Amino acid sequence: MEEGTVLLDWIFETSVAKYPQNIAIESSQQAFTYKEVDEMANQLAGWLQRQGVQPEAKVVIWLPRSPEVYIAMLAVLKAGGAYIPLDPELPVARVNFILKDSDAKVLISSERFLRQIEAQPEATTMFLFDSDVDKLTSFSTQKPIVGNRNGKDLCYIIYTSGSSGEPKGVLLEHRNVVNYIKAAKQIYDVDENQRILQGFSVAFDASVEEIWMAFASGATLVVGTFDIMRSGDRFASVLNNLGITFLSCAPTLLSMVKEDIPSLKTLIFGGEVCSPDIAHRWCRKSRTVFNTYGPTEAAVIATYSVLQPDVPVTIGKQLPGYSVYIVDENLQPVGAGVEGEIIIGGESVARGYLHRDDLTKAKFIETDRFDYKNQRYYHTGDLAKYADDGNIVFLGRSDAQVKVRGFRVELTEIEGLLMKFNGVQAAAVALNIETQQLAAYTVMQNNEEPDRETIAKLLRIKLPYYMIPATLDVVPELPMTSSQKIDRKRLPLPQTPLTFSSESEIKEPVTDLEKAMVEVMSRNFGRDDISMSDHFFNDLGGHSLLAAVIVSEMRQNTMFENMSVVDIYKHPVLSDLAGELEKKKPRAATQHMKKKRDIYTPPKWKYFTCVFAQGVSMFFLLLLFGIEWLGPFFVYSYYYQADNGVFDSLATMLWMYFALLPILSCFAIGFKWAVIGKIKPGKYKMWSSYYFRFWIVDKVINICPVTYFTGTSIMNAFLRMLGAKIGKNVYINTSAISVFDLLEVGDNASICTDTHLRGYTIADGYLYIGKITVEKDCFVGTRCCLAPDTRMEANSSIEDLTLVSEGTVIPVNEHWGGSPAEKIYENKVQSSRKLWSFRNSFLFFVSIFIIPLITMLAYFPGLMLITHLDYISEHYHFLWTTIGVGFSFVVLLTLIIVFLKWSMLGNIKEGKYPVNSFFYYKKWFFDQLMKLSLQVIGTLYTTLYLQIWFKMLGVKMGKRVEISTVEFISPDLLETGNECFLADSVSVGASHVRNGYITIAKARIGNRTFVGNSAVVSPGTRLGDDVLVGVLSKMNPENLPAADGTSWFGSPAVFLPKRDINHEFSAERTYKPTRKLFVQRYVIEFFRVVLPSTLFITCAALITNVVSYLQVEKSLWELFLVFPFLYLGAAILGTLVTALLKWIVIGKYKPARKPLWSNYVWRSELITGIYENFLVLFFLNLLTGTPFIKYPLRLLGCKIGKRVCMFTTQITEFDLVRMGDDVTVNDNCTLQTHLFEDRVMKMSYVDIADKCSVGGMSVVLYDSKMETNSVLHPLSVLMKSETLPADTEFVGAPAKSI
Predict the structure, then answer these.
(1) d(Cα 74, Cα 63) in Å, to the nearest integer?
(2) Distance between CA atoms of 1014 and 78, rounded to whole angstroms?
(3) Span of the secretion signal (predicted)?
(4) CATH number (domain holding residue 1252)
C-alpha cells in the first residue's frame, strides 16, 4: 500500500476508536453506537468476502431508509468492494438494468421490502437483512483482512441519468471521496456533538456529504425516514425536536417551510439553483448557511459560498484541494463577467463512467496548462462567469441536463423513451423552474392524440419518480437554436397533465372548504381544470415538495390550520382529502404571551447615597493601594529627608516592605468578615447598601497581592480564611474570585490560569450572586468562566475558553467545552498524585516576598536618585531625570527577568512534570515574573523592542513579527513564523495542571498568521501559514494543525470560508516596511515604552516632594493620613496629562482604516500605552464599579450616560465608545473599537443603548450595537456589524440568542 493512503472505511474506524460509545446512527426508536455499527459491519463484511467480494467487486444496496443501509455500505467497503446505492422507490426494471450493467456480485436488500414493492430483482446472490441476519453470527466482529488495497480502489458507483436512454454509472475511488471529506471538514463546523439529518436519497451523491460528515466526526447520523422527509409543514418542528444541527438539502425543500429550525447551526444548499429569497430567509446570525455546487464526477461538491443577507447568491470559490476554472471553447480561462464552462480538477475527479470509455474520454481530459502539472479535469457542461470579487456565478447547463430536487436528470433520456411511442415524431422535456416539475412536449404524426395512459404507465416502469414529467403537451413543432438544438427556453408553458383525458368529467368543488382547497391547488399547479376526483400525484403530477408548499399555503386559512402534509399522502384523491379536512377543522385558537424581564432602576436618593459612600471610601482605598506599591519608597524618603542616612533609611524601608504583605493580607481577611460577613446567594438591587459593601470588600481583597498566591498551596489557605470550602490537594491558579463563601472546590480539583470564578454578575439593575461548585477530581482549563449557580460534578472537566452558563450542571465524568459549554466526550477515571510538598510551600512563601522586590530593585535606584536630587535642590529640576529613570527601570527589569529565566530554568523542554517537583517551582516563579512584566512594563509589549527581549528569553521568532500583550508563554516553546500577528491578551501555550502534573508543550504560529484579541492558543497548537484565529477563539483539536490559508472563529472555532481581506494598502505599509519606517517607529515607540513609567515615577516623586515639606511639622503617622489626598491630587494631575496628550497627539478618534506601518497607528498606540500602563494602573482600576470612572473616560472622549456601572477599563479608541444610561459593563470585558486583521487598523463605533449589560470576559467588536435592555452574557462575542435586538439575551462565541 502506498505511503499516506487513507481509505474511506478507515475514516469511520478512526471515529470508532475515538468515540466508541457515541451514537452513530439513530432512526425512530433505534440507536446504534459506533462500536455496535462497526461490529455488525465487520460481520457482514466477512460474509461478503466469502461471496467473493474483493477490491473492484460491486455490491448493490437496495433498502428502505433505515440504519441497515449504512451498515451495508460500511460492510462492502471493509470487504474491499464498492457499493452501488439505489433509491428505494426505483422501478425494478431500472434495478435489473443496474445489476446487469455493473455485474454486481451481491444485492443487499430485505425480504419485507421486496415483498412490499412486489419486486423480483434479477440477482444471483442476495443478502436479505431481515431473513439472513442469522448467517452473520458465525463471522467475527473484527474487521476482515483484505490485501492489496490502495486509494485508487473503486469506492462506490452512483448511477445518474444518461443521454442514451439508459443510466450511466460514475466510478468514484477512495482517494476521490477522502479528498472531499478532508476539504469539507475544513469548511463545515462538524464535531462529535452534531446531529446530522440524512435526508437525501442514497442514490444521490449529496448523501455522501451527510453520511461521511457524521462518520468522519463521531457525530450522530439521523435517518431521514419518509415520515420525516414528508412531514411538510411540520418539517421544522420535527427537525427541531430531533435536535438536528446540520442539514444538507435542495433549496426547494425549505422553500415551503415557513418556521425556522432553531437547533440548526449549519445549513447547506445544493443539488439545484438556490434563489436569493430562499437563501436569505434562512440566514441567521447563529447559523452558517452554505450554497454549494458540484457534479457527482467531482465527488459531491467542488465550490462553496457562505450566504449572507443582502449579498448576491453565488456558488463561491473552489474547495481546498480542488481546481476549478471557467474556460472558453478553446480551453482558455475567461475573465470576469465572461461566460464560459466550468471545469474541475484535483484529487476528487472520478475515474470515469462504467463501460462508457467514449464518454469518459469526452468528458475527462488531462492537461498541464492551468497548474503547470499534468492533472485530470472534468468538463461539467455547466455555464458560469466570474463576479468582480472572484466568486463564481452559476448560469445554467450548456446541454440538456438539469437537477430536479437534487437529482441530476438527463432530459434526453426521457425524450428517448417518449420517442419510442407510436405516433411521436419529436419530443422535448424541460424543467419548469417555478414548480420544479418536468414538462414533456411531443410533435405527433398526422396530428394524432398521444396515448397518455400507456405513456404514463411505461414511464413509471422505466423511470424513477423524480424523472416522470408532470405534464405532456402536444406542439406543432419544437423551437430550435441556430445550431439546430432544441431551444428549451422557448417552449410554451406547460398546460396538460400527463394523464389528462378530454373525455373525463371534471368534478367541481362544492363546499367552501373544497373551493378554498382547489383554489390553492390551481394556483400552484398553474391549472384551472382540477377535478375533485383527481389524484394528487398520478393525475396532477404532484410530489412531496409541492405537497408541502400547498399545505403551507393552505394553512394560512384558519380552516386548514390543523392540516398536515401526511393528509395528502393518506388521502391523495382530492374528494377524500376534503372529507378528512372537514374532520380537522379547528375549534379554538390559542395565544402566547411573552414573559417580561424584571429591570430595576434605583431611586435617586439610593443612587446618590451609594455614590457618596463610595466617594468617602475612595480615600481609604487610595491609602491602601498607594501604600502597597509606594509605601516603602515613601518611608525611605521620609527617613532620608530626616537625616537618618542611606543605610538606616534602607533598613527601615525593607522592614516595612516585608511587614506590608502579611499585614495587608490579614487586614483584607478581617475587613471582609467585618464588613459583609458571610456572602449569601441572592438578587440584590444595584447601588444598595449590600452592593456597596460587596464592592468595597472586593476592592480591598484585590488590593492585597493575591495574584502572587495563585498556583501555590498558599492560595488554598488564603481562600479558606475568606470562607471558601477548598478540599485537599487542590490547584487554583486564578485570583478572579469574589464570592468566597459560595465557592466549593473538592479534593484533587485543578483550576488553571485566568479562569473567572467571580460568582456574580450585574444585569437588569441587579447584582446576582450564586454558588460555584467544583467537585473532586475536576479540571478547569485556561481562561474559562463559571457563572453563578453552576456545578461541575466529580471527575468532570472543561476545555480552555469555556463558559459554564448560569444554572448549568456538568455531570459526572463528562468533558465539556465551548462558549456556551456543550458535552464533548466521557472522561476516564483518573488518579492524582500529591501536589504540595513542604519544600515547595516554603519556597512559595519566600518567593511571594521576593517577586515584588524585583520590581523595587529595578525602579528603586532611580527613585533614590530623585530623592537625593530633591534633597539638594530647591526647585523641581529633578523631574527632568524621570524620563531617564523610567528608561532605566524598563531596561533593568527586562534584564533581571532574562537573567533569572536562564539561571533558574535554562532551556524549557516540553513535557509532563510533577507539581511537587523543583521544576514546577521554577516554572511558577518565571510565570509570576512574566505576569509582573505585563503589569509594570506592559507598554513594552506591542513594540519592536519586545521582539529583542523575547528573543533574549528564548522565543524562536521570525522576521517582522507583531506581538502584543501575549500571556502565559513558555519562551522556548513558542515558535513564530515570519510576519505573524498576536493581538492583545492572547494566551499562548498556558500550561495545564491536572492530576498532580504540569503539562507544557510547544505552540507554533505560521507565517502571516493572525491570532485575535483574547484568543487561546492551547499547548501543542500548530497554526499553519496565513491562518486567522479570531477574537476570543480557541481551535478545536480536531482541526489542528490548522491548514494554511484558513480562518477560524469562536469557541470552539468554526471554519470561516470567506472574510473581508484588505487590499487597500501596499505591502510597504503592512508587511514589508522600508528602513525609514522602521526608524520612525523605533523613535515613537521609545516614548511609548518609557513615558508610562516616567509618569508613574513623576507622580511618586511629586508625592514624596510634598511630604518632604510637610514632614517638618508632621509625624510619619500624620503623613500617612495625608497620603490619600496627595495620591488623589497626583492621580487627577495624571488624568489631565493623559487627556491632554491624547487630544494633542491624536485628537478625536473617528471611524477609519490605517495601515500598521503608519504614523497614526504608532501615535494611537502611544496614547493607549500611557492610558493602560499608567492611568489605569495608577488610578482607574480603583474607580471601577463606581460612577466616578466615567469622568476621566469622558475627558478622554467616551460618551457615557448616567448611572453606568463599569467593572472594566479595556477601552482604547475612546471617542468611538457610546453608552446610554444604566448600562452595566462587567469585569474584564472589552469594548473593542479596533482590530488589526491583515495589519490594517480598522476602527469604528461600539454602541450600547440604555439598560444594556455586557457580561464578564466578553468582547464587543466595532460596528456593533446593543439595543435597549439587551444582554450579552459572559465570555461571549458580539461580532462586527452585529446588532442585539432590544429586550434580548445572547450568549456564546459567536453569540447566540437565548
Answers:
(1) 14
(2) 45
(3) none
(4) 2.160.10.10
Q: Which residues are bridge partners to 410 per DSSP?
A: 401
Residue 708 has pLDDT above 80, yes or no: yes
Q: Which residues pair with 427 in a beta bridge?
A: 442
Cross-strand partners of 1243: 1152, 1234
- pLDDT above 80 (res 548): no
Rounded CA separation 1037/1001 (Å)? 14
1066-1074 long-range contacts, Cβ below 8 Å, gap at least 24?
1066/1155, 1068/1157, 1069/1155, 1069/1156, 1069/1157, 1069/1158, 1070/1155, 1070/1156, 1070/1157, 1070/1238, 1070/1239, 1070/1240, 1071/960, 1071/979, 1071/1008, 1071/1239, 1072/960, 1073/960, 1073/1157
Strands 766-769 and 682-685: antiparallel
Check pLDDT > 80 for residue 482: no
**C-alpha grid cell, residue 276:** 436569493
pTM: 0.58
Range of the domain at 780: 615-630+643-792
Three-state DSSP class for residue 890: helix
Residue for grid cell 476528487: 348
pLDDT score at 913: 92
Contact call for residues 472 and 450 (beta carbons, < 8 A): yes
Which grid coordinates belong to 340?
Answer: 464560459
Cell of 958: 521570525
342/321 Cα distance (integer angstroms): 16
Q: Contact 731/774 with Cβ under 8 angstroms?
A: no
Same domain, 694 and 762: yes
Report the C-alpha gap between 1105 and 1099 in whole angstroms: 10
Specify which residues 760 forms β-bridges with.
769
d(CA 927, CA 990): 10
How high is the mean pLDDT of the chain?
86
Closest CA to 1200 of 1190, 1192, 1210: 1190
> Is residue 742 domain-shared with residue 675, that is, in the same domain?
yes
Beta carbons within 8 Å of 251's beta carbon, 6+ residues apart: 269, 271, 272, 273, 274, 275, 278, 279
Backbone angles phi, psi at 1036, to 5 degrees: -75, 130
Task: Report the interhelical angle of 1075-1110 vs 838-872 (nearest 10°).
Answer: 80
* Residue 557: DSSP 8-state: S
Q: Could you give the angle at which helices 882-904 and 1075-1110 cross, rounded to 10 degrees?
A: 110
Flag whether pLDDT at 564 surpasses 80.
no
The H helix count followed by the E strand count for the chain is 32, 74
Task: Output the nine-digit C-alpha cell for 450.
Answer: 398521444
The set of residues, in sequence order, having a beta carbon less than 8 Å from that of 906 and lying 6+ positions away, is none
> Are 747 and 624 part of one and the same domain?
yes
The C-alpha atoms of residue 234 and residue 252 are separated, in whole angstroms, by: 16
Q: For 59-80, write each residue's pLDDT tens digit.
A: 999 999 999 999 999 999 999 9
pLDDT range class, residue 1110, cuts 50, 70, 90: confident
Which grid coordinates belong to 1194? 469622558
Cell of 584: 380537522
- pLDDT of residue 503 exceeding 60, the answer is no
> Do 122 and 44 share a structural domain?
yes
| DSSP letter, residue 704 | S
Residue 24 parent element (H or E): strand 23-27
Residues 6+ positions from 593 with CB-CB distance below 8 Å: none
The residue type of 363 is K
How far apart, in whole angstroms, are the C-alpha atoms of residue 54 and residue 389? 48
Q: What is the CATH number of the domain that holds 555?
A: 1.10.1200.10
Q: Are 430 and 400 in contact (CB under 8 A)?
A: no
Q: Are 789 and 769 in contact (CB under 8 A)?
A: no
Same-domain status, 472 and 517: no
Q: What pLDDT, on a 0 to 100 scale, did the predictor assign at position 523?
A: 83
CATH number for 101: 3.40.50.980
Give residue 10's Cα distance to chain centre: 27
- Asked whether residue 861 carries a pLDDT value surpassing 80, the answer given is no
